[in-house]
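Technical annex, item 7. During the second reporting period the consortium partners agreed on a shared format for inverse folding records so that results from different sites could be compared directly. Each record opens with the tokenized structure and is followed by the designed sequence. A conforming record, contributed by the partner at site C, is shown below for reference.
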């Protein structure tokens, strides 16, 4: 089954096809979903940096050669 299309021939489904104001309203809700006190990375830069390092180490772990 093909997705519904508008008169211009483009799909009228999905986020990108919405009018910009509706996109902003939906995006705004995502930013409001977590209370400020729960946004630990925005409150503590060192915590965010540590998490980034930890993720980098985990993703690079398989590429490192073992020490002999």
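Designed sequence (site C submission):
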């Amino acid at each position: 089954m093909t997705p519904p299309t508008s008169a211009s021939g483009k799909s009228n489904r999905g986020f990108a096809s919405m009018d910009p104001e509706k996109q902003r309203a939906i995006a705004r809700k995502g930013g409001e979903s977590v209370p400020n006190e729960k946004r630990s990375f925005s409150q503590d830069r060192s915590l965010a940096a540590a998490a980034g390092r930890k993720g980098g180490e985990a993703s690079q772990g398989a590429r490192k050669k073992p020490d002999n």
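The helical segments are 20-32, 40-43, 45-60. The mean pLDDT is 75. All partners now use this format for quarterly exchanges.
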